[in-house]
TrEMBL record:
Stored PANTHER family: ADENINE DEAMINASE
MF terms (GO), sorted A to Z: adenine deaminase activity; metal ion binding
GO biological process, one term: hypoxanthine salvage
Designated name of the protein: Unannotated protein
Length: 341
């Protein structure tokens, strides 16, 4: 078995993937035609997924949202991305979605969440993959809208929706604006995560841990600018969900070996690897692992650690985590023994 086959076959937990970033370009085009939504000009559907910066990328996100309207549309996009993930042996995913984006595009929260649950159930039936949902705050919107989003979640409880997150562009929208939404979610028993220090100083990581009460950090690359915070998160065992391919443009152009993920790993920070917005960045759950192996010196043992860190950082209950750790480690070791030297 070669390295690519090995990295595809190993069992995976996925904690950092966005629903809207997971839609195949072809599906966006079909759904836009179905609902009469005008998309930017393209020759091939994949042309829609090219952008020079995060703002243009997010603009495409919002464009796609206009094409996702009915419960069946939400079911379809969830089913398609989970089926693809299952082909890479992703067994459990905590997938984020942005309720306010879909509501602004004209779908009700109930249509959105129940459609996603339909897709999750169908993917479990057909491929055995499990998925839970994280409702993400769009940090470019107001703190009041984030509070309203949490109220909507609480008025429409679904057992699949287990927590809240925070995404969109960080540089001008610091985390402290959202303390109230996070406090409400925590009091209601929702689990907490947030994108921080993807595109802003490392102090946002401390705000996210200390003020918002986050249990893990999504991205977090600017941590390498503060040795004190690096030491703190390492010593506290905070799990970081890192996505090399989707953040390539920020850090290295063509030279992936400069990505801070490498230094974070070498320093001993607990991290796991995921694929963020797979079709929108021409990646998939295996390709992000391959990049780590080929450009950042990840060894077989590093991948084993990442796998176990993903389980630790998940919002599963402890007994489920224990069983999963044992099963995954056994499978991983059997595959590693077949890896050609
Ligand atoms: N999707 C929404 N916000 C994102 C972000 N900040 N990075 C990557 N994908 C995103
Ligand atoms: Zn992300």
């Amino acid at each position: 078995m070669n390295t690519h086959e090995f990295l595809k076959a190993i069992p995976k937990v996925s904690l950092h993937v966005h629903l809207m970033g997971s839609i195949q370009a072809r599906t966006v085009v079909e759904l836009a035609a179905k609902h009469g939504v005008k998309l930017p000009d393209f020759n091939e559907p994949e042309d829609l997924y090219q952008y020079p910066d995060i703002y243009k990328f997010l603009h495409m996100y919002d464009n796609s949202a206009l094409a996702i309207q009915g419960r069946d549309d939400f079911a379809r996009i969830a089913y398609e991305t989970l089926s693809e993930a299952a082909a890479h042996n992703v067994r459990y995913r905590e997938m984020s979605f942005n309720p306010t984006t879909h509501m602004a595009a004209g779908a009700s929260y109930q249509t959105c969440v129940d459609g996603l649950i339909d897709g999750i159930n169908a993917a479990r039936n057909d491929h055995g993959i499990e998925c839970r949902l994280i409702a993400a705050v769009n940090r470019m919107e107001s703190p009041e809208l984030a509070v309203a989003m949490v109220e909507t979640l609480l008025e429409n409880p679904r057992e699949e929706v287990i927590g809240i997150g925070m995404d969109y562009a960080e540089a001008e929208f610091p985390p402290e604006r959202f303390w109230k939404a996070y406090r409400m979610a925590e009091q209601a028993g929702l689990r907490l995560t947030a994108h921080q220090s993807e595109d802003a100083p490392p102090r946002n990581i401390e705000t996210c841990l200390d003020l918002l009460g986050c249990e893990r950090v999504d991205h977090g690359y600017h941590v390498v600018e503060s040795e004190a915070i690096m030491r703190r998160v390492r010593d506290e065992g905070v799990v970081f969900t890192c996505t090399p391919v989707s953040t390539a443009w920020v850090y290295f152009g063509e030279d992936l070996s400069n990505h801070p993920i490498r230094m974070m790993k070498e320093f001993g920070i607990k991290l796991m690897i995921d694929c963020d917005d797979p079709p929108m960045f021409q990646t998939d759950p295996t390709k992000d692992y391959i990049v780590c192996a080929e450009h950042m010196g990840f060894s077989t043992e590093d991948f084993r650690n990442c796998m176990l860190n993903g389980i630790d950082g998940s919002f599963l209950d402890e007994p489920t985590k224990r069983t999963m750790r044992r099963q995954f480690a056994t499978e991983f070791d059997a595959l590693a023994s077949q890896l050609s030297k």
